Amino acid sequence: MVVPFDDVKGAIGAVPKILQSGIVSLAIEYIDKESIPYGERATGERWPSKEGDAHLMIIIEGRDEEELFSISEEIEDICREYGALDLLVADTAREQKKILDIRSLIYEGSKEGLIEILDVSVPPAMIPDFVIESREIASEYGMKLLQFGHAADGNVHQEILKSGLEEEEWGESYPKVKQKIFQLASEMGGYITAEHGIGLTKREDMYRTLSKKEIDLMCKIKSVFDPNNILNPGKVVDLERI
Fold first, then answer.
1. Burial class (CB in 10 A: 0-12, 13-18, 19+), 43
2. In terms of CB atoms within 10 Å, which end of the chain has fewer, N or C?
3. What is the DSSP letter of 195?
4. What's the confidence (pLDDT) of residue 201?
5. Are 229 and 239 contacting, i.e. CB atoms less than 8 angstroms apart?
6. Phi, then psi, of 46 in degrees rounded to 5
């Protein structure tokens, strides 16, 4: 089902209440309005709602239609409390696939102008403030930010787009935008990656955002399993930087 809200605060506000109600959902995804056209472009399909700036995509299962209908009604009641504008149920396999494809292929529709995908994590209750402030950071540098992710666990995917800027312009602005977003996440009790991992591209960001105590602990763990430092020495955890 798709539930549009006027803003991200209403959308995310409904999520804890859904979880606390005892409803077991397969997924609760947050998708901002800016991201949807890119998924539509990649699929040639249309998202079921044009209302609101923030959407929840909720996947549920049940033993039969009666149970699914009952769960849907309960979710609708909760979402209405938080300002939901509508609740649209995909009741055919075709409609369900369309919605899932649009959400899944946002990257495919945006990759031509994409610089990087961030997968920052913050406490779920902080998602609204994080999304709003991240958008302001990107806007300050003339860049567009698409934001969507897993509303129940605080994982926010952020696609930073060139927005028509020349390479010299976005090449100068992008690192500043990324660092400010990472700093914002850290200040909110989050971390610079939730799923994608550190790898090489975020190694220096890891050293900037983690404390010396945390880095030292990681190095000590590596030393236990790799006492001779022969397994990818310095690749991510650099023992010489202790």
1. buried
2. C
3. S
4. 84
5. yes
6. -125, 130
Report the alpha-carbon distance of residue 178 to residue 226 in Å, rounded: 32
Question: Any idea which residue has 């590596």 for tokens?
Answer: 222
* Rounded Cα–Cα distance for residues 47 and 45 (Å): 7
What distances in angstroms separate CA 20 from CA 13, 25, 60, 151, 152, one per listed residue? 12, 11, 15, 14, 11
pLDDT at 236 over 90: no
Measured CA to CA, the distance from residue 242 to residue 233 in angstroms comes to: 13
Residue 164 has pLDDT above 80, yes or no: yes
Residue type, 94: R
Residue 27: partners with Cβ closer than 8 Å, 6 or more residues away: 57, 58, 59, 150
Give CA–CA dist 21/79, Å, rounded: 12
Q: Is the pLDDT of residue 242 over 70?
A: no
Q: Where are the beta strands (DSSP E) in the chain?
A: 2-5, 27-32, 54-59, 114-121, 144-150, 155-161
Alpha helices in 82-202 (DSSP H): 93-104, 106-110, 127-140, 167-187
Contact of 174 with 120, CB cutoff 8 Å: no
**Which strand (E) or helix (H) includes residue 19?**
helix 8-20
Cβ neighbours around 147 below 10 Å, total: 24
